[in-house]
Design a protein that fits this description.
405 residues, 3 domains, four-stranded mixed beta sheet, ParB/Sulfiredoxin_sf, 16 helices, ParB/Sulfiredoxin domain-containing protein, alpha+beta, 45% helix, two-stranded antiparallel ribbon
């Protein structure tokens, strides 16, 4: 009986060795979304010992099957340690992405949270909750910056669980569920050299546009909900997004008194015009996207009230103080109308201004009441290089509203 068990154990070891050898030779170990890796699950041959299961789940262990043990290329390890104020300070100083590793940077910490955490540490009210300080396989801090910052400002520091060896390439985008990282945080961490916040906004607009079935009914980012990792992945495959943001950022700094629209709006307009230009089959352009957008931002040389850029700037100025998603659509449509007019392409209404839902309407009793979706665009959205399409049904319903003086 013992011989059979020993033989079976040896066979399992041999099988595991063969599988591991084949994986090393023919399969590239996954380094993203490791927690969803079927390859890692299927290649696992070990299970948690029943004694370990009992230790973890206590009396409830009897209801659970033995869990598979996943063998990672870089093993994940942990310890419970004391992090003193000086150690916390040094961890942030020497492990800080951007200091040693110039390709990466840490996110900004929440100052109010740092103050509260430091007070709790000083007053002996810091709990060992199980939330760890997470260190990547490269020695960089993936999660715990706020707690470390608080410890560096405290008197005694704190006891923490430290986990190291995390090798998932997208770990930063998904860690710290208690203080969810913004899309801009993720882009900054990835080493984006342009304004990460603006790039994040432009990426969301671009992704939302790509997802819109009917571009004439484009609604911007209304109704969308993108995860930080999605935006990071989207940006990494589109260098043109960062180039557009960089171009607009330079122009905005040079003409900060003249600019009439948010940088993200102008950068997306610049990006989309250039993207549509790739499929343009004409022999020459009356104006380049760079010059067109630069003229809109600066207003330089626009002395004639009949010039296209003058009219675009005039409309942008009329809604400059608005910050709604409706105003965003109107700004973009106006800029694209101006571009299409340069290209000799017809535009809705034959002018750059955009028709909008009135602020007030009359009800059945003839009373003046606020309109639903007041200020929303009520014409088909304009797309660079594309002739006007049919007005979407939902937009037509908006157009039925009557303006009241």
């Amino acid at each position: 009986m013992n011989r059979n068990k020993e033989s079976q154990h040896n066979n399992n070891d041999i099988e595991e060795s063969i599988v591991q050898g084949l994986m090393e030779k023919y399969q590239k170990p996954p380094n993203e979304y490791l927690a969803s890796s079927k390859q890692l699950i299927e290649s696992s041959r070990r299970k948690l010992d029943r004694k370990v299961m009992d230790e973890i789940f206590k009396s409830s262990s009897q209801y659970y099957p033995q869990l598979k043990v996943i063998d990672l290329a870089i093993p994940v390890q942990h310890e419970v340690v004391h992090i003193s104020p000086s150690v916390a300070r040094d961890m942030l100083k020497f492990s800080k992405r951007g200091s040693i590793n110039t390709d990466l940077s840490n996110r900004r910490v929440n100052r109010s949270a740092v103050k509260k955490f430091a007070e709790d540490m000083n007053e002996g009210r810091w709990c060992l909750t199980g939330e760890p300080i997470i260190i990547g396989h490269d020695g960089e801090i993936l999660d715990g910056h706020t707690r470390l910052e608080a410890a560096s400002k405290s008197n005694y520091g704190f006891i923490a669980i430290i986990i190291w060896g995390i090798s998932d390439a997208l770990a930063f985008a998904h860690t710290d569920t208690g203080n969810i990282r913004s899309r801009a945080n993720v882009l900054e961490m990835a080493g984006v050299s342009v304004d990460a916040k603006v790039l994040s906004q432009v990426a969301m607009l671009s992704k939302a546009f790509d997802m819109t079935m009917n571009p004439y009914a484009f609604r911007g980012t209304q109704g969308t909900s993108f995860k930080p990792a999605e935006i990071l992945d989207y940006v990494q495959g589109r260098d043109e997004l960062a180039l557009s943001v960089n171009k607009i950022s330079s122009l905005a700094k040079e003409h900060k008194q003249q600019i009439q629209a948010p940088q993200a709006t102008l950068a997306f307009a610049h990006y989309l015009i250039n993207e549509k230009l790739k499929s343009y089959e004409g022999d020459e352009l009356p104006i380049t996207p760079d010059i067109y957008i630069a003229n809109i931002i600066s207003g330089l040389g626009q002395t004639s009230t009949e010039s296209i850029e003058y009219k675009v700037r005039d409309y942008l100025e009329s809604i400059r103080k608005e910050s709604t998603s409706y105003a965003l659509l109107c700004r973009l449509s106006c800029i694209f109308k101006g571009w299409n007019m340069y290209m000799g392409i017809p535009v809705v209404g034959k002018k750059v201004s955009v028709r909008r839902v009135a602020n007030f309407i009359k009800n059945e009793e003839g009373e003046r009441v606020p309109a639903k979706a007041a200020g929303n665009i009520k014409e088909a959205f304009t797309i660079p290089f594309i002739e006007p399409g049919k007005t979407p049904h939902k937009v037509k319903k908006r157009a039925a509203m009557k303006q009241v003086n």
